[in-house]
Design goal:
The chain is mainly alpha-helical. It has 21 helices and 2 strands.
């Protein structure tokens, strides 16, 4: 998939396919241009590796959410500590994700991914072996550190290895992420019951993370060999730093990512409770929540493909806003009678997540630009997203109903739409330097 000097898009812009200075640049994602990682078996190995990483990106989080009551009882976690554990993913994604561009400038992305997936596997194993609440939190943070780094790297790898298939490949790994999220949430409790311990329901996902390491080991070794062969002058060449935080586009991307993640985490945290308050049994309310994720699987594949083919993203931005608006109004006015329709509309509205992941690649010409934009948008966005479940809970407790929380989500949606209009037309983060 890689050319000798770069690829040309339909709009006439070209971009080189380098990942960063030093080791990160010469080795790219681990296969190196000379080794042909962008074509044939190398490209297939990269794609398989990306999909395996994507399946792991939420399993450690949703499995814990499903077993939180059992974990609290088993470890004696206080309510405050349990609340901190549920907030830890967004904290880790925001803080540790911001370090990824620094890592990529020094090491090949394949090597970084090997360490990230090992951290995820080891963290998940260690947290189910301890009886200490503090150790549980620290080892969970280790696992989440691996996820945080991988979150940032995947859009860059799409840009680097599949520049002409950005939508398709982003859709594939987003769908894999959604499947992993759904399967972990649905099966964590049955696995725990089958083995008689919550530890099994959490620990089993470490095996999946270990499998995700395997494709990246040969790519990392190839990257190391390519870096040794590269001329020292190339490794020492200074590269201009791309700073999305100094651009309007960078902030618009961060706000859009943050606002859509805010609503996503709020829905995951509170939708089942809303349906229970509307008169549904707990089991049915849980199935309705699972329906949002399940219906999101085909949307996760379709949305990036559409985004990659459209010159402007305004129809998609406005369409997703319309679906979410109708869903929120329906949940406020008739949560019981129209539940299936509102679930379907919420699933469509949550297509904003695969859309923004695709847009990260579409709004950068280079792999350097992609990883910088990915890091800024996701790390800043997750800070915004952390407010979602918290503020919804505060408003729900203060008012005793869902009108105020849904009103808050509609305000967040308006902010998301405004940012979406900024990122909708073609522009590139490198032009803002």
């Amino acid at each position: 998939m890689q050319g000798k000097s770069g690829h040309r898009r339909p709009n006439g812009h070209s971009f080189p396919e380098t990942a960063g200075a030093g080791a990160g640049a010469g080795a790219g994602a681990g296969a190196g241009a000379g080794a042909g990682a962008g074509a044939g078996a190398g490209a297939l190995l990269v794609l398989v590796g990306m999909l395996l990483v994507a399946v792991n990106l939420r399993a450690a989080v949703t499995s814990l959410g499903a077993l939180l009551d059992e974990v609290r009882g088993g470890l004696g976690l206080s309510a405050t500590m349990a609340g901190f554990v549920t907030t830890l993913p967004t904290i880790a994604f925001a803080g540790l994700g911001a370090l990824t561009p620094w890592l990529v400038r020094r090491f090949a992305p394949a090597r970084v991914l090997v360490v990230a997936m090992l951290a995820l596997a080891v963290g998940q194993v260690l947290r189910v072996l301890t009886d200490s609440p503090l150790v549980f939190v620290l080892t969970s943070a280790l696992a989440l550190a691996g996820i945080a780094v991988a979150n940032i790297l995947l859009p860059m790898l799409v840009k680097q290895h599949f520049p002409h298939r950005t939508g398709l490949v982003t859709g594939a790994y987003t769908m894999a992420l959604t499947v992993g999220t759904t399967v972990a949430a649905a099966s964590a409790v049955p696995i725990a019951h089958a083995f008689g311990s919550w530890r099994a329901g959490l620990g089993v996902w470490a095996g999946l993370a270990a499998v995700a390491v395997l494709p990246w080991v040969p790519l990392a070794l190839r990257a190391r060999a390519a870096a040794r062969r590269a001329p020292r002058t190339a490794a020492a060449t200074p590269r201009a730093r791309i700073r999305p935080g100094r651009t309007r586009l960078g902030w618009a991307m961060a706000v859009y990512f943050g606002a859509q993640s805010l609503s996503g985490y709020a829905i995951m945290g509170w939708l089942a409770q809303l349906f229970r308050d509307a008169g549904y049994r707990p089991e049915t309310a849980g199935l309705l929540l699972a329906g949002v994720t399940a219906l999101g699987v085909p949307i996760a594949l379709l949305m990036p493909t559409l985004a990659g083919r459209l010159r402007t993203l305004r129809p998609l931005v406005l369409g997703l806003t319309t679906a979410s608006t109708l869903a929120y109004l329906g949940l406020a006015l008739a949560p019981h009678d129209g539940a299936l329709l509102w679930v379907a509309l919420l699933a469509v509205g949550q297509g904003a997540f695969p859309l923004i992941l695709t847009t990260i690649g579409l709004r950068a010409r280079t792999a350097d630009g992609t990883v910088a934009l990915s890091a800024f948008a996701q790390s800043t966005g997750y800070v915004i997203a952390a407010l979602g479940p918290l503020l919804v809970g505060v408003l729900y407790e203060a008012t005793g109903g869902w009108t105020a929380p849904i009103g808050f989500l509609l305000v967040a949606l308006a902010v998301q739409t405004g940012a979406g209009m900024v990122i909708a037309r073609p522009r590139y983060i490198e032009d803002g330097r």
